[in-house]
Amino acid sequence: MAQRIRGHLSFANVTSLMALVFAMGGTSYSLTLPKNSVGSKQIRKNAVTGAKVKARTLRASDFARGQLPVGPSGAPGAPGAAGLTGPAGPAGAQGAQGAQGVPGVVGAVTVQRTDFALLDNATAGESVLCPAGARAIGGGSSVDAITANDIHLTVSRPDRTGVTPDDGETFDGWRVSYRNVAGGANPTIVHAFAICAED
Prior knowledge:
Elements: H1 2-7, H2 11-25, E1 109-118, E2 122-129, E3 134-143, E4 151-159, E5 173-180, E6 188-198
Antiparallel strand pairs: 1-6, 2-5, 3-6, 4-5
């Protein structure tokens, strides 16, 4: 008998019978879905609306690019602190040599002379200045007691109105100085010269 009943069972017959039993008995049936069993394929198109989305749960990354409105630009921020100085770069390659300049013209050359006394056991010096509008291009000196070996030249250099000029500066005179050792030559006269050229 049981075999005869099983031979007439089908999915449609069982489903119809269960529906009839639920309808007659007034019993409700709850369906429990396994966790993480509903995906995008199980959700119908346009089934999720704004009313079904929890407020303030969406982020900017949930929207396509260009969908969210862009607000106005903010005010510029305060300038940041200056960064540290970077290390010095390597030296560049030497540039090509420039063209030769036009030769300068030297004006009239004159010699200016100043004499001063050199006493025994004393040191003396003097500056010879060029005339206005001229500058010194050289200088020198001499003494009358040329045979004395105890008179020593201590200074012979360009001069700029009593100040020693630095590299690259022009000068307007020449300064010399001598030392006469005690017990040697008698007092003598020193002749200082400046070679001057007009600008």
